[in-house]
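My current task is to audit a protein record that another person submitted. Alongside the sequence sits a line of tokens, each denoting a local backbone shape. Where you disagree with what is written, explain briefly why. This is what I was given:
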Amino acid sequence: MDVLVARIGKPHGIKGEVTVQLFTDAPEDRFDAGETFRVEGAKVPELTVAKARWNKDILIVAFEQVADRNAAETLRGAQLFIDTTGTEDDDDDSWYEHELVGLEARVDGAPVGRVTALRTMAVQDLLVVELTGGHEAFVPFVGSIVPEVNPDEGFVVIVPPAGLFDLNTPGSNQAPDDGDDAAPDLPGEAAPGDAPDTAGVTAEGQARD
């Protein structure tokens, strides 16, 4: 099965390096030198990693087939895929989005909704859960809140902090943007852009290939 690992962003520098938007929580493994991706959205059918490095929270990648900035510019928006057929992953705590979507979300053994997406974000990954009430909840994909993922039996267990399922109810202003630069605020934190309260309290993790 082909799995989307990243999308290429803008060029970085003049030597053909590019930034990538990650859809994997194991970038060190996926972007090791010599790793090859199937490409969609560009003229080249494959790209092979020459080297990769971090610039703060941004992964910068150089590919063997890309020599300069002009060539890098032609890759902007291209998607990188790997074939996971017949591969094993040693990290039992990492998950592909396709392994999570459709799983029943349970709280204290009772179903509360169903997972519809996994958002890989800069701060922490989020499970998007469509609740039985009809709205979505954004659940931080960390062990303390999602202690069990059981794709064989078709469910995930959620231990929600108080108020977590209310953050994206109609009229709420606290749902995260579609970008990768913010996570939902937990109860008691001020949402970015909201006016601070009188106490002046203001308020930024990862899953797997």
User: Anything to note?
Assistant: Confidence is low (pLDDT under 50) at residues 171-209. Residues 69-73 form the longest helix (5 residues).
